[in-house]
Amino acid sequence: MTNIASDNPTLAAPPKPPHAESVSSILATIKTSTNTGLDSAEVSRRLAKFGPNTIPSSDTVRWHQVLLRQFTDVLIVILVVAGLVSVAVGEVTDAIVIFAIVLLNGLLGFVQEWKAERSLAALRQMLAPRCRVIRDASEMEIDAAELVPGDIVQIETGDRVPADLRLTRCMNLQIDESALTGESVAVDKSTDSIEATTDLAERTNMAWTGTAATAGRGIGVVVATGQNTEFGRIAKLTETIGRDATPLQQKLSVLGRQLGVAAIVISIVVAVTGWVMGKPMTEMFFTAVSLAVAVVPEGLPAVVTLTLALGVREMVRRKALLRRLRAAESLGSATVICTDKTGTLTQNQMTVQRIWLAAGEVDVTGVGYDPAGHFESAGQKIDFRDRSDLLALLHSGLRCNHARLVKNADGWQPIGEPTESAIVVAAHKAWIDPRQCVEPVAEFSFTSNRKRMTVITQDQGQMIADAKGAPEILLPLCTDILEGQSRRPLTDQDHQNITAAIETMAGRGLRTLAIARRELSASDPCDESAVEDSMTLLGIVGMMDPPRAEVPDAISLAKAAGIRVFMITGDSPVTATAIARQIGLPVDQAVVGGELDAMDDQALGTALAGDVVFARTTPEHKLRIVKLLQSQGHIVGMTGDGVNDAPALKKADIGIAMGKRGTDVAKGAADIVLTDDNFSSIIGAVEEGRRQYDNIQKFVRYLLSSNTGEVVAIFLNILMGGPLLFLPVQILWMNLVTDGLTAVALGLEPSEKNTMYRPPRRPDEPVLTKSGMAMIAALGTYVGLASLWLFHHYLDDADPSSIAIAQTVAFTGIIVVEKINVLNFRSLGAPIWTVGFLSNPWVLLAIGTTISLQIAAVYVPVMQSVLHTVPLSLADWGLIVVVAMPIFVLVEIIKTFAWMRSSTESS
Ligand code: ATP
Predict the structure, then answer these.
(1) What pLDDT score was predicted for residue 75?
(2) Which residue ranges run through the membrane (predicted)?
(3) Residue 57 above 80 pLDDT?
(4) Nearest C-alpha to atom 12 of ligand 1 is from which residue?
(5) Is 837 exposed, middle or buried (0-12, 13-18, 19+ CB in 10 A)?
(6) Does the residue 32 lie in any domain?
(7) Of 174-188, 732-746, 867-881, which one has max mean pLDDT?
């Protein structure tokens, strides 16, 4: 390992590698202190010296690669050949135009794809990991990229290790090093120095970049960053956004390939037929090229990529960071969302409202994290100094706690977990100074499987274990109870009283937590099962976590969208049911973890068919529920925040991690990360996913209907024995320049009114549904026939010069018809007046721009010679508009009838 001292001549070279040094000597070598950390000036110096703590991503795409990609298409090869043949037959202008259009198309594609790459890169930046360090003698959160050797880093359960650390303090710290060593069993960590020759996998006092803490907590000093870390050296870790093509992109590329083959076959057949029928060879060659160009929707891949990238930005605005592009599509077809309760459906703002004590219940006043408030009994303020049982409970709750309360310009802010912060606030209300608490000597951390936490401290020679946890977990571990000042054995009556108190609190939606303690003797073994036993119950705390105001609307929107919502929480069934009812989630049955274990798949399937909430669950239950729902054909979204949630998040079709309270491990396993941890954002993201899919369908259908029109016109014209209808350059112009712009604009359509009022899309639904194909065929035929009619209307067999005007009218006509036709695709089913004519100004702008370009193509001399056009009269334009309008008017009439019929049916 490269470490600071060997890299930095100003610091003494270490005699040994970091794992072989003692904690004090490594700190001295690296010139830092665990209490104060580095100061800002030293951090800047070291940052300049060692560079940022990042490992260059191996899949960073360079601009020239994207540019090159634009010119490696079969179509481009066809065009280049056409260009060369043009030169050979003396059509130099045509050749120049073809090459220019190839270049322009490449540049347009490059701009679109590069824009897409940039927005993915920006997203990657937002997903950059953060970590907690001590600097300038205070604790702060920074971007992991800013870490320097000598920084003091705090690690807790679920954190990804941000740099290579020599551990200086460990409390039951276990680290999953599988990402580095392949060993799947988590390693117990300690701070003792070990032999210099010890293998990497056995260096128990080190924590390596990219590995993740699965239990406990620890502190370590950074000994290597960025490429100097073990991970950096093997450069395996790239925290990137999955770039793999989405299912839709894959289907589209298959479609593209099929069309490519069709293009070549059609072109050859047509060219040979024409030639056999006596047409000149060169004319047939150019007809074949025109046809090939007409069949393939050239702009499609770039438009899809750009739309997905713009969609990523829109998702960010809606508080969902996509880690995999495909998640947007899956979101669009989600049929079930499994969500946890605390923090997702609720505000995660806990306030202790009631405390049950054997000597009598106490109410706590005050709101949120402001420590202003007092204690009451039967509506009367009480002096907490008279209640030693209350003080004992609060002291215990404070010792078994990692949260702190700080006051800044925005008022009182909690640092740490809300459940724990709420206890700190309650202790403040009794004027207990948290600084009185002594440092813990050991800890059995909270996990959602254990549902409890115990901390051992040593105070004036006495070892004390303080515990808090879910009442039904902690109560069985208690043998005694504190009543007033005295401790006595727990009786059946106590159990009844406690159960009744918990039911009452939970029935009001309060989250309940039992607090217990035990005095340990020096001879007691320091293991979990021995310590968490024979404890004395101090009381039960009830805390309020109000539902988020926007959640009820999101729940009813999910229902309208045909999405079922299941609450799967670690909290108690009574609290879960109370909160579910408050947010409008119907509940017929609350199934707790134990009951779930006893159910076979059939019974669970039956429960899932009803209105059920799952309570007191563990992450394993989540995994089972996901699997079962998927086996029933559901597309499942699953939320999670803990380390153990990772398997369920990975298994789900859409793993959703919480950005604020989620662990790095959960975020790493998820497909999307919610920046505000809010359930409503999931539903917002579903709507956005549906919008994107709809829009992709809209422009795919639009582009294909244009291409169909071109093929129909050229093909029928050949059958009719007409002269060359469109020149290759004209087809390139209509496909690449004018259609590309309108397709991008269609990708920006806002979501339709019914987007969330229709059932989810079947995931196996083909890109082109039957109705989609019918629409393409019908509208394409109209486009083709319209321009063919215009061509033959102007063609005068007696006057060979009429071909120029006929070609120009047909060419302009097809572009105008195609532009009017765009309006038909603004909505897949609804008439335009229900969508709003002006609701997507981009489409109008694109139509305006392309028509202006066509006007220029017809009147600007240079463009006339390039595109082989002649000027048109006003009457010509009038006829074109008359021929074009029915494509919109007829479809509108049909859509209006269908819309009115479906509205009467649904009402
Ligand atoms: P959700 O799964 O909806 O987020 P939750 O936060 O209640 O709900 P868990 O975090 O698994 O689920 O907590 C389960 C139970 O464990 C809680 O109801 C509470 O009684 C107890 N608990 C929660 N946090 C702590 C903690 N820091 N220390 C001890 N016990 C805790």
Answers:
(1) 67
(2) 71-89, 95-111, 259-278, 284-312, 699-719, 725-746, 767-791, 803-822, 842-862, 874-894
(3) no
(4) 570
(5) exposed
(6) yes
(7) 867-881
Amino acid at 582: Q
Q: Please, how many CA atoms are within 13 Å of residue 399, restricted to the half-sphere of its CB?
A: 29
Closest Cα to atom 16, ligand 1: which residue? 451
pLDDT above 60 for 875 = yes
Q: How does residue 67 score in pLDDT terms, banded at 50, 70 and 90?
A: confident
**Residue 493 and residue 453 share a domain:** yes
Q: Is residue 196 part of a domain?
A: yes
Instruction: Write down the pLDDT at residue 902.
Output: 79
Is residue 355 in some structural domain?
Answer: no
- Return the pLDDT at 240: 45
Atom of ligand 1 nearest to the CA of 343: 4
- 139 and 80 housed in the same domain: no
Among 73, 151, 164, 340, the active-site one is 340
Q: How far apart (Å, rounded) are the C-alpha atoms in residues 880 and 814?
A: 9
Please check whether residues 80 and 195 belong to one and the same domain: no
- Pocket residue to mutate for ligand 1, from 156, 347, 396, 419, most atoms within 8 A of Cβ: 419
DSSP secondary structure string for all residues of 104-160: HHHHHHHHHHHHHHHHHHHHHHHT--EEEEEETTEEEEEEGGG--TT-EEEEETTPB
Query: Which residues does 830 contact at the CB level (< 8 Å), separation at least 6?
Result: 752, 753, 754, 895, 899
Are residues 458 and 599 part of one domain?
Answer: no
The enclosing domain of 608 has a CATH number of 3.40.50.1000
Asked whether 446 and 532 are in contact (CB, 8 A), the reply is no
Q: 787 alpha carbon to ligand 1 midpoint, in Å?
A: 69
- 294, 710 Cβ separation under 8 angstroms: yes
8 Å CB contact between 341 and 576: yes
Written as six digits, the tokens of 751 are 């979501």
Q: Where is 463: in which H helix or E strand?
A: strand 462-469
Q: How many helices and strands (H and E) does the chain possess? A: 33, 28
Give the nearest ligand 1 atom to 469 CA: 30
H-helix or E-strand spanning residue 412: strand 411-415
Q: Is the pLDDT of residue 551 over 50?
A: yes
* Among 80-89, 744-753, 786-795, the least confident range: 80-89
Question: Which stretch of DSSP H or E encloses residue 352?
Answer: strand 351-356
| Domain span including residue 642 | 327-346+549-677
Domain end (from 636, 656, 677): 677
Does the residue 115 lie in any domain?
no
Give the CATH number, domain containing residue 131: 2.70.150.10
- pTM beyond 0.85: the answer is no
Nearest Cα residue to 574 out of 642, 510, 498: 510
Q: What SS3 class is residue 382? A: coil
Q: Could you tell me the distance, in angstroms and rounded to a whole number, from the CA of residue 570 to the centre of ligand 1?
A: 6
- The residue out of 542, 558, 591 marking a domain boundary is 542
Q: Which of 9-13, 298-302, 391-395 has the highest mean pLDDT?
A: 391-395
| Nearest residue by C-alpha to atom 20 in ligand 1 | 470
Query: Quick one: which H or E segment has residue 590?
Result: strand 589-592
φ, ψ of residue 420 to 5 degrees: the values are -75, -35
CA dist., res. 267 & res. 263, Å (int):
6
Residues 803 and 849 in one domain: yes
Q: Is 340 a catalytic residue?
A: yes
In a mutational test of the pocket of ligand 1, which residue from 445, 446, 454, 638 has the highest number of ligand atoms less than 8 Å from its CB?
446
The token duo for 332 is 């669009």
Domain count, the chain: 4
> Is pLDDT of 178 > 80?
no
Same structural domain, 561 and 692 = no
Does 209 share its domain with 249? no
pLDDT tens readout for residues 727-773 = 878 887 887 777 778 888 999 999 888 899 999 988 778 888 888 99
The DSSP symbol for 761 reads P
Q: What is the CATH number of the domain that holds 377?
A: 3.40.1110.10
